[in-house]
Amino acid sequence: MDEILIRSGEKVVSRVFVDAGIEALESCIDAFPHVYAVMDANVAMNCPVAMQVAQIMNRRNVPGKLVEASEQTKTMDTVMEICTWLLDNGADRDALVLAIGGGITSDMVGFASSIYKRGVRFAYVPTTLLAQVDAAVGGKTGVNLDKYKNILGVIRQPEFTYICPQVLESLPHRDFISGAAEMLKTFIIRDQGYYQRAVAVLSEMKKGYAGLPEESADEYWSDCIAAYSQELTDLIAAAVRVKAGVVTRDQHERGERRKLNLGHTFAHAIETIAQRSDYVHSVDGVQACIAHGEAVAMGLVLAARLSDRVFHGDMDTPTALEAKVSADLSDCGLCPDCPFPVDEMAEIMSKDKKAEGGRVHFVLIREIGDVVLYDLTVEEVCRLLA
Ligand SMILES: NC(=O)c1ccc[n+]([C@@H]2O[C@H](COP(=O)([O-])OP(=O)(O)OC[C@H]3O[C@@H](n4cnc5c(N)ncnc54)[C@H](O)[C@@H]3O)[C@@H](O)[C@H]2O)c1
Question: Among 42, 129, 258, which residue has the most ligand 1 atoms within 8 Å of its CB, making it the best to mutate?
Fold first, then answer.
């Protein structure tokens, strides 16, 4: 088991355990006298490893609550429901709230724990690839307001994040590749050889999956995740190390941490329009709203195009960097094409959390592994991407 530390100055503020067997979770929570568990209801039904977690919690008489995790329920209403449940169950300032689920569950539980009784401790068992490499690491919590993504929230570190790669074996293909987008984003920011390695592993995994009949696809995918478990664990640990390093250097996003938002100004606008217009995205024969990671993939391609146009004045369509990023994402099973015109995204981008005084902090790619912060107005971006 790998232990990756997040520090604030000399002090360790959060621990990330990678490649952790689920049985050892019990000894991890031993240090906390009063534990409360909040689990994604869908995960409780469909993920055998989460069922093991539930058994551990039952054995220890840990009170448990199920929540519905979707972008529609990622709101203050659910946060208040969690707080009310904590209050009804007598949770005091010494409570530890354990979130078991994907990024939506960890964002909501982290936020509820941060405001309940002015803040109690919390920890995560992330069950999606996206949460393991990104959402459950670094301390950003939050919920949506009026269809604006993650507009309410705080930065507060979990006591620990417990990453058990085996939990991914029940994760549907579509949710898995959505997480792969955040992992590839991390390696575009800091490469150390992992970007190409991740593309190679994910494309190999996808090759076997593509074209399988529906009835055997899920089983193949689960076996595939198990077969590639060592490669995936190495990639997850590498991505967590990159994020933990950035967060240690800039916990409150005053500088370097902004780089982790690569592609996200576009992604949040894409998600918002998709929700407003009830746009249906079709992947693996599944019709659903665009998932966060899927929007990030599209955002990465737009960021690549913008980068080429800013740095090289390259006005061809597609540009060189865009062509590479787009082909790599596509090889991994992600859809790189944004279905909405940039003009339609303009109003939402101007309300982005990263907007200040009419300018938005965009993250541009010089090359894989080298990104820079670059302020542009939304009008400039629309003109450059036209
Ligand atoms: N806090 C941060 O720093 C941060 C970073 C990136 C993304 N996010 C947020 O994370 C959210 C997306 O997270 P996500 O992709 O994990 O979504 P999610 O939590 O909705 O999980 C995706 C789907 O997979 C299901 N699922 C989860 N684990 C499973 C498992 N092991 N087996 C079977 N099914 C499983 C869930 O029930 C859900 O249907 C977005 O709201 C985004 O804003 C936060």
Answer: 42
What's the rounded Cα separation, in Å, for the pair 182 and 135? Answer: 9
Alpha-carbon gap, residue 36 to 16, rounded angstroms: 20
pLDDT at residue 357, rounded to an integer: 77
Instruction: Name the residue of 22, 72, 130 whose CB sits within 8 Å of the most ligand 1 atoms, as the mutation to test its pocket.
Output: 130
Q: Identify the H or E element spanning 143.
A: strand 143-145
CA 70 – CA 140 distance, rounded (Å): 18
Residue having the nearest C-alpha atom to atom 18 of ligand 1: 102
Instruction: Give yes or no for residue 102 CB within 6 A of ligand 1.
Output: yes
- Facing residues of 123 across strands? 98
What are the structural domains, with CATH classification, of the chain?
A: 2-170 (3.40.50.1970), 256-385 (1.20.1090.10)
CB-ligand 1 contact for 158 (6 Å cutoff) = no
Q: Indicate whether residue 101 lines ligand 1 (CB < 6 A).
A: yes
Q: For the residues 26-38, what does the mean pLDDT come to?
A: 94
The rounded mean pLDDT for the chain is 94
Cα distances from 65 to residues 129, 256, 364, in angstroms, run 23, 37, 41
The helix-helix angle for 264-276 and 342-350 (nearest 10°) equals 100
pTM for this predicted structure = 0.96
**160-163 and 370-377 beta bridge pairing:** unpaired
Cβ contacts of 239 within 8 Å, gap of 6 or more: 133, 134, 183, 186, 187, 194
For ligand 1, say whether the CB of 161 is within 6 Å of any of its atoms.
Answer: no
Q: How many CA atoms lie within 13 A of 39 on its CB side?
A: 23
